[in-house]
Amino acid sequence: MKSTKILLLLLLIALGPEKSAAALREVREVHYQMGTYLEFTLWHHEPETAKRLIRDAVREVHRLDEIFSNYDPDSALSRLNQHAGAGAMRVPAELFALLSTAREFSEKTGGIFDVTVGPLMELWRKAEEENRLPSGKHLAQALAAVGYRNLMLYRPDEAELTRGGMSVDLGGIGKGYAVDRVTDIMRAAGVMTALINFGGSSISAIGAPPGKHGWKIAVQDTDERLRGAIHLRDTALSTSGSMGRWWTIDGKKYGHLIHPIGGTPITEARTAVVITRSATRAEALTKPLVLLGKNALPTIETFSDTDAIVLAASGEPAFSRQFRGRSSWKEISKK
Amino acid sequence: MASAQEGIFLKEEEAPKAVFPDATSFLRKVIPSNDDLKDKIKQRMGKTLTSLWEDSYVTFVAKKGETILGYAAIIEEIGKHRPITFIVGVGLDRKIRDAALMVYREAYGGEVRDRRFLQQYKGKDLKDPLLPYRDIQNISSATMSVEAIGRGSKKALALLEVVYFEGTERK
């Protein structure tokens, strides 16, 4: 009798996980939100439930876009920008939270990450249109309207841009925030295995695909070749590159990332990768790394559980100090 | 769209629900293309250049009960090398609500087939499970091109504007 029970137990142990793993189905969908693609890969026992969760997530991202967009003149962010220099105004809770987080990153990075770079973005966009570098006077004017210290936040829900002409651009952090919210939705619904990829630059991994120890993510180098691979499990990754998008002025390429203190866009080819628990943090912290290269690694190392890689046009990748102990990096190709 | 692996993501019958999850019914309408429609679409697209080779467009009116939520159109655009098919949903405010990929025909947008990339593995067995790209789930990239889906979304917006918001098909 006892041996029968043991045999039955062994049989259950042997069949149990295999049976449940066999029942898992992969559901993949790609949507278009915030001007880029939003890709979901879910492993779930019920594909219809997985699809419904994806719809819920897309709805949430669309809702956030209606708050954070600076293309939509009716968004809460656009209204805040239009109100610059005219006192404090109430903003939605999500915008208040994201602005608070952004300001915190600005302080910790000495202002190298700064969401108030809107006037500089506009200046360089216009420079490309006119195919002429901005004059020193216009650059100084734009710089005078930039500075996170002039973004004031009053709890619980008021924000103020204290100088006229200021404008906030959440392009360097908004997708990460959306990925975190989507991850929350998935986890709250009991999803154990999912990958959320927003535009290739903000990725969140929940669990690992069946039979794998993580989601294998390839990282592109500055020349677009696949340089290495990283396994992600219950963590987020963000990539930012200096030359993913650029302005061309008088035949020269200027990356879309602008140094908020100097006011000029980056011209060196550089890619940064940050791995940490929050996609919001990961996305924000790639910016100082792209702008300053490996010189920004000590700043990144002050954040807990955060690893980083900097890839430059030449030379070996530079890793944050604790990278090797916590994260994996398998080289695919060398320079 | 370079990170998506090739495959069918959504069938036609599933597609409108993906961009209008709140809708309870969809009215499918096939809109034949002609020179007049092409001209109107081009006018509304302004500087955005697109190819208008389609003989017809599959569109949907999304309804919740008797209330129209918006319109959707199935669109094709050339991705990096081959056409991608996706559905675009537009709300009554004439703004894009969502777009969802239906068919993607290029594995990793061509990177893994890139001759320079494959050259590194010359002489190795292609079945070697250690080949790094075989189990790559995604590519984190700073240089993703989403231009095709952006162009296609504008084409859908122009089509639905002409056909439903201004045209005779509005219900």
Task: Tell me about this structure.
The complex is a heterodimer of chains A (335) and B (171). By secondary structure, chain A is an alpha+beta fold. Chain A has two domains: 28-68 and 173-331, Roll (T-fold), CATH 3.10.520; 76-172, T-fold. Chain A has helices spanning 2-23, 47-68, 76-82, 93-108, 118-130, 136-144, 174-188, 279-292, 297-300, 323-326, and strands spanning 25-33, 36-44, 89-90, 151-154, 158-161, 193-198, 202-206, 215-220, 226-232, 235-241, 246-249, 252-255, 270-276, 307-312, 318-319, 330-331. In chain A, the strands form four sheets. In chain A, strands 1-2-6-7-10-13-14-15 form an eight-stranded antiparallel beta sheet. In chain A, a hairpin with a 2-residue loop joins β1 and β2 (36-44). By secondary structure, chain B is an alpha+beta fold. Chain B has one domain (7-165). In chain B, 23% of the residues lie in helices and 30% in strands. Chain B has four helices and seven strands; from the N terminus they run βαβαββββαβα. Chain B has a six-stranded antiparallel beta sheet. In chain B, β4 and β5 (83-91) form a beta hairpin. Chain B is globular. The relative contact order of chain B is 0.24. Mean pLDDT of chain B is 76; it is low at 108-133. The interface between A and B is large, with 52 and 43 residues. β8 of chain A pairs parallel with β7 of chain B.
- What's the helix-strand series of chain A? HEEHHEHHHEEHEEEEEEEEHHEEHE
Order of helices and strands of chain B: EHEHEEEEHEH
Label the overall shape of chain A.
globular
Q: State the major sheet of chain B.
A: 6 strands, antiparallel
Kindly report the average pLDDT value of chain B: 76
Largest interface: A-B, 52 and 43 residues
Helix content of chain B: 10-25%
CATH class of the largest domain in chain A: Alpha Beta
Would you tell me the structural class of the helices and strands of chain A? alpha+beta
Termini separation of chain B comes to: 34 Å
Quaternary: heterodimer
Low-confidence stretches of chain A: 8-20
Number of helices of chain B: 4
| Strand order in space, largest sheet of chain B | 1-6-5-4-3-2
Q: Helical region count of chain A?
A: 10
For the record, the count of structural domains of chain B works out to: 1
